[in-house]
Design a protein that fits this description.
about 160 residues, 7 strands, globular, RNA binding
């Protein structure tokens, strides 16, 4: 999450979001190893607001919005895989839906198909790093968040 001190800075940061100029990297623990070690996923997503659930639809769906992400497998162990995910777009539930769409649901994600999850369990999706351009100085700013020390993160 990024905060701006002035309305001008907020406007410039919003522009970076619109232009997809921010680099966002997430880490995800998934239940299955993806068939490909790395790939770009391109889907069209539709959000059912009444059910608060997103689904993959045809590119011809009138309310479908294009969603793009790149992932790569960092490691696999004990039937789980750790993925690095870079968003190219920012759709609701995008990572969860697109990974589930290739048969690799996020550990603990009850909404999008994870097995062996418990009610109230936090899903294994972590906002790992963010790089933006300073809204005034135009220099890159990168921030990173260390992984939690709890399972399943602690097996890596």
């Amino acid at each position: 999450m990024v905060f701006a001190k002035t309305s001008k800075a907020a406007s410039r940061l919003s522009d970076q979001v619109r232009r997809n100029a921010m680099e966002r990297t997430y880490l995800a623990v998934v239940n299955e190893k993806p068939k490909q070690a790395s790939s770009r996923l391109v889907n069209y997503l539709y959000k059912n607001r009444q059910k608060n659930k997103v689904s993959i639809v045809s590119e011809h769906h009138k309310e479908g919005k294009k969603a793009v992400l790149d992932y790569s497998v960092i490691a696999s162990r004990d039937g789980l895989s750790l993925l690095s995910v870079k968003l190219q777009t920012g759709r609701p539930h995008q990572i969860r839906v697109q990974l589930a769409g290739i048969g690799t649901s996020i550990w603990g994600d009850q909404k999008y198909g994870a097995q062996y999850s418990k009610v109230g369990q936090q899903i294994a999706l972590w906002a790992n790093s963010l790089t933006i351009s300073h809204p005034v100085q135009k220099t890159p700013i990168s921030v990173a968040s260390p992984l939690p020390e709890a399972y399943p993160w602690n097996i890596w």
